[in-house]
Amino acid sequence: MSASKMPTPQPAERVGAAPRNKVVDRPADDPDFRTLFHAWLESHRASLVDSLRRLGRQPVGSFFTCLVMAVALSLPMGLSLLLDNIERLGGSWQRAAQISLFLELSANDRDGQALSEQIAAMDDVAAVDWISREQALDEFQQLSGLGQALKELPENPLPGVVLVTPREVDKAKLESLRQRLAELPKVEQAQLDLVWVERLTAILKLGDRFVFGLSVLLVLALLLVIGNTIRLHIENRRAEIEVIKLVGGTDGYVRRPFLYMGALYGFGAGIFAWLLLAFGLDWLNDAVVRLAGLYGSDFALGGVPSADGFYLLLGAVLLGYIGAWLAVARHLSELAPR
């Protein structure tokens, strides 16, 4: 056999070795999903650490920025919590809208109890109180100061009264309920102070609108504060940002650290606002308890509910993020490399 027809020698296989897998080279410009995701996480981690480090280098300025934001956040939340506590004062606001049912003089205690049980079974009724003729006369004697003169009367002129407390303070619903109650047997007259109900509704609406308007103004102020703060950070890093954009850095890469910085400002402000509300309500509660005790009441202010505190913290973070995004979006076009 000639040398030209000799088979090309192959490398020997080691006995017991695993079969060789054919390696397929992946193009350099086609990274897999895991690599991309890891790079994305690493970029966000680096931006977060960098933002924390820069805030830590200016502890006094960062503290006062968060404190100013916290005061602005705590004002509307504190007023809202105070309104909620005022609604609980004396039991409930529904007590101010009671419907008084004056029964016929011929109605006895059994009729009054039966009527009270019938009314209490209605869906739009929260509570029912029965005042007999004798109880009404005793209360009138104590409050009017005419006790001796009333004893000279041949008979009790006062009727039995059923006090109905509705579930909702709404003028239309209260008037509908009053008309239904007036048609019940043994009821002589159904009386409702609609003027007080209208005043009560107006006071509640005024409080809600005031809190809403104050919240809008303070949210705008917070956006201005966080926007101006981020703008100062951008100016301090202008040269660095221009170099990053010169070597191909994207707008998202440039924007990311400032967004984390705004969110961190919001998080710190939310924590401070929560603490301010908790300590403020606790400090105010001492005076409220003493005042309520003078009137024989055990009323006390409630603290900050956990759900409200969490929403306050979440809202503060979102406000910081939005304010930072607006500030960077406004100045990003000016950060082109020269």
Considering the chains and any ligands shown, give keywords for the structure.
single chain, 338 residues, Alpha-Beta Plaits, 4-stranded antiparallel sheet, 64% helix
What does this structure look like?
Helix 2 crosses helix 9, helix 7 crosses helix 10 and helix 9 runs antiparallel to helix 10. The protein has ten helices and four strands. Strands 2-3-1-4 form a four-stranded antiparallel beta sheet. It has two domains: 186 residues, no CATH class; 98 residues, Alpha-Beta Plaits, CATH 3.30.70. The chain is elongated and about 105 Å long. It has 338 residues and is of the alpha+beta class.
- Helix segment tally: 10
| Integer tally of domains | 2
Query: Biggest sheet, in brief?
Result: 4 strands, antiparallel
Radius of gyration: 37 Å
Share in β-strands: 5-15%
Can you count the beta strands?
4
Question: How helix-rich are the residues, as a percent range?
Answer: 55-70%
